[in-house]
Amino acid sequence: MSKPTTSSKTPSLLRPMTAEAIERAARADRDAQPLSETDLKRMKRTPQAKIIRRALELTQEEFAARYHIPLGTLRDWEQGRAEPDQPTRAYLTLIARDPDRVNQTLNR
Fold this sequence. Notes:
The protein has 108 residues and is an all-alpha fold. It has helices at 19-28, 37-42, 48-55, 60-66, 71-78, 86-97, 99-106.
């Protein structure tokens, strides 16, 4: 019996694009143009509280109760009617980083 042979073909070498070539290619694609300052200002950002709540797979009611946030306040944040102040943003950061510990601390 003869031993099967493997192909000795080498793959073609890839030539990476230069930064300039990437920029030219991107600018040539009319569907991939960079956003202007005006575009960025008119776009709505998803509020941090909503992102955190969804990542934790909690309803607004569950999140508000667990982390002692008034439900109406949470809804205002999530709908963009109000923004959390700096201490509250810090609190939301703690929730995002260690939600179980914050929950245990608040709800012993």
